[in-house]
Structure formats: structure tokens, C-alpha cells
Amino acid sequence: MTISPFKADILKGKVAFITGGGSGINFGIAQALAAHGADIAMMGRREEVLKNACDEIKSKYSVRTFYKTGDVRDADMCAAALKATNETLGHLDILVNGAAGNFLAPPELLSPNGFKTVIDIDLNGTFNMCRYAYEYLKQSKGVIINISANLHYVGTLFQSHVSAAKAGVDALTLNLAAEWGHDGIRVCGIAPGPIGDTEGMKRLAPGEVGEKLKRAIPLGRFGTTEEIGMAAVFLTSSAAAYITGETLVVDGGHWFAKPPMVPREVVEKMMQASAKKPS
User: Fold this and answer.
1) 33, 82, 139, 150 — which has fewest CB within 10 A?
2) What is the DSSP string of 119-185?
């Protein structure tokens, strides 16, 4: 992990629960929280992945870890995993809802079941976890971080299912922040842009597709899981104590930047030709 701008013990004594925490962006978040002192609990569907992730975090950061297999679409599994975390690690302070599904599909070819599956994982799964974490977070005056996306800020081709799900996640973030603020619970979101060191990017934007996407990002590069992790550290720390209901976009300017109508070299030639004309 790169050198952090935060104090190493800024989250010491906190317990963070991350869905999908065994890989990708969510593992980056889990590592960042652990590097700053938080004990880590995870839930996912693949036990081997969870075990390896927890073993690595425990070895690197000397924090307590716990995992339980489960599917966020199953409300009973969500409740059981949170209950077991509370019993094992003593309390719950941070919930990160990162479990998600995605694939490319034109809407006219997308099956109703495919659409429903993404909604169930991304949106319904986020609600399930928030719903059953509420009683624990109310006690700790805790924080929820919902992992969103920047896809629904514009019309993104082949991503109608994910865009609908993440728009719902953003709405849920706002509503829970308004509902649960009086209980001392902050609810925020993080909307990552293209993150290079993930399996998802390899599948969704391979080879030249990825290079073309990179050139369209104002900062000229993909993000990293570490950078998403740092955003999570900020939002879960006391530095963000008066921030709730906000979804922090971490995408290098990707969502709002449009490709040029004509290539730059054509514009330069037009300007040069115009300058040569007599006034």
C-alpha cells in the first residue's frame, strides 16, 4: 500500500464489515481500513477467497478478522453474518456494501432474469445489509458506505441493468441518511470510475477498449483499489463526521468528460488557417 495521508491508528478500535470483501475494489477497501487499525469482517459466496483475504489482512496488519459465507440476496444470511460478527468481534462500526454483479448486455438482449439478478445483488442486497446492521450501528453511532458507480450519471451503453441498480443505491443512501441521522448513523456512498487493477475491468474493457477508455479520462489513467480504499478511510473517519447522504465520485473526471467532436489536430489546423486569413 502506498504511503497514507492519514494517521495509522485513525480507525483503531473500529470493526468494519465488507460484503464482497475478498476481492477487487472491496478487498482494497478492506486492506485500507485494516491498515488504519480497523478489525475486518467479510461476507461473500466463496469461502476460499474469504479465508485467503482474511489471512492476508491479519498477516499484514495484525488486526482481528472474521468471515462468513453468504449471499446478500438472502436476508436471513445477512442477519446471521452480522449477528456472528457482533458476537465474535464485539461490535460493528462500519458497514461497506460492495457486493455487486455486472456484465455487458444490450437491453433488447438482456433477459428479465439477468436484469433482476443485478437488481437483487446490488440494490436489494444493499438494503438487506443496511436493514439488519441498523441495530448494531445505532449502538455504535456507526457509518455505512454504499459502493455505487458513475454509470447512471449519463446513458451508458450495455449497462441498463447496473445503471438502474446503482441509481437505486444512490437513492437508498440519501433516504437512509435522512432517516437514520437522528440515530447517529452516517450513510455515504463511493462511486468508483474505471479501476485498473480489478478482474471486472479486464472483463468489461479488455485490450484496446481499455486503452481507448483510459484516453477519455481527464487524469489520463485508471484508478486503483488503493485510491478507493483511501476514500473509504476518509468517509469512515472523524474527518468526515459532518458528511452524510453524499456519494463521493472517485473516477478521475471520467463521467463528465465528453470526447471531442473533432480530433485536436483538426482543431489546431482550423485555428492556424484562420490566423493566416487577412483581417
Assistant:
1) 139
2) IIIIIIHHHHHHHHHHHHHHHHT-EEEEE--SGGGS--TT-HHHHHHHHHHHHHHHHHHHHHGGGT-
User: Tell me: the pLDDT tens digits for 102-160?
Assistant: 999 999 999 999 999 999 999 999 999 999 999 999 999 999 999 999 999 999 999 99
Model's pTM, two decimal places? 0.93
CA distance 113 to 159: 15
Q: Does residue 223 contact residue 231 with C-beta atoms inside 8 Å? A: no
Query: Residue 150's CB: how many other CB atoms inside 10 A?
Result: 20
Domains and CATH numbers, the chain: 15-276 (3.40.50.720)
Q: Are 257 and 226 in contact (CB under 8 A)?
A: no
- CA pair distance 48, 22, nearest whole angstrom: 9
